[in-house]
Amino acid sequence: MKIGLRILVCFILLISCSEEQLEDGASGTVKGRVVESGTFTPIENVRISSSPATSTVFTDKDGYFTLEKVLVGDYSFQAQKDGYIARFEPGKVTADATIQIIFELQISTANNKPPDIPVLTAPVDNAKDQPLNLNLTWTAADKESDSLTYTVTLKNGTTDEIKTYPDLKEKTLAIKDLNYSTKYYWQVAVSDGINKPTNSVTNSFTTLAFPNPRFLFVKKINNNNVIYTADEAGNQLQLTSSTVNSFRPRKNLSVNKIAYLSSDGSQSQIYTMNPDGSGVFRVTNFVPVAGFNMEYVNYCWNTNGSQIIYPNFDKLYRIDSDGGGLIQLFQTPNGKFISECDWSQDGSQIALKVNDRSGYNVEIYVIDMAGTVLYTIQTGLSGATSGLNISIDNQKVIFTRDVSGFENTTYRRLDSRIFMYTRSNNTAAELTTQKQNGFNDLDVKFSPNEAEVIFVNTSNDGLSAQNVQKVSVNSASGSASSRTTLFQNASMPEWK
Prior knowledge:
By secondary structure, the chain is mainly beta. It is elongated and about 125 Å long. It starts with a helix and ends with a strand. Residues 1-23 and 475-481 have low confidence and may be disordered.
């Protein structure tokens, strides 16, 4: 009995051993692919091995690999390549079957050094008179010879607009359509795809000066007044930042400076700047510019640019353009506010527009430098009046007046027209310019040769866009074609 039991056990063990040997000889296939984590870019020449050990293979150019005749069993497969973190994936091989394994390798930064700091080569830092189309160039290097990409950041120093040019492969970038008379700042960041990008220093350059900028005007941006200049072809250049309220530009050709008003808290001060918007200087300090409504207050240079006159409620002040020499020139005898002033070319006369606290009960008169009234242009009329400019020979004064006589708390005008006062006959006559009904002509000034006038035209609804137009002074027939729109969505014009 015992002998028979032993024979049975041996037979069972023999069968078991035979089945295990059959299973050990069976095999399957392992296929897979290796890609970069996040981007899923195929990775070539990745070493694929296993534990327990089988054969070792490398991925092809598309990241694929195949392990053939792998004995059945449980394995741990490894994908490994310099520059990447090795990854393990489990797999169970069964007889005459194919399993699929995907490796997502992360880039290793453990021993990889970041690229060197880029060196900006052109334009050189603080370069002047650069063309509007130019190439930005730089150099960059990487100790591991990693593939590099570049990002260029370009900032407009006037408007604060920032443009970004990412994923550049070359160490040069062609920039087109830059603005005249503008300072730009630029920086290059280089990335090897492994480490954090490395930034260059920030360099700057300034473009060519704006050619023949004859015009100045104001546009509304982000609820702020912003000053622009333009040439006769209509090319425009922003001079002041849209983050600051800057308005009422006045240019002096003798010193080649632009004066303007800018809000300083609750006050408005006079500043000057170069024609390209640089060299900003604050002129007024203790006595600001003030009146019933700053949108309708004006000031004036003298001819040689050494002094400026400006109103502060019922007083007229004169100040040197360097901020010194402040004196009071005149005070209205009836307490009315001075809203506008214009200094004659020869410096002997000053035209004043005065009004009450609401902007009405307007008087326009001309005084000499001692404050004596030489002659009166307007008094005793209802409605708003604005814009004031003396001709070069002191014989004419141009202004606008609302002939409707309408007055209200919002200072809305219904039918503002252009008038010219002639001293020889002491009369003010309307310029017949075929203004449309429901529109206003405002803020008028002579052209440099006084053959035309420049002004603002807008609907009397107080909401529509304003446009800068011009018209011939001698357009007695008043044909509609005599009007020309120079700039849209613009106000407070100046023509020098």
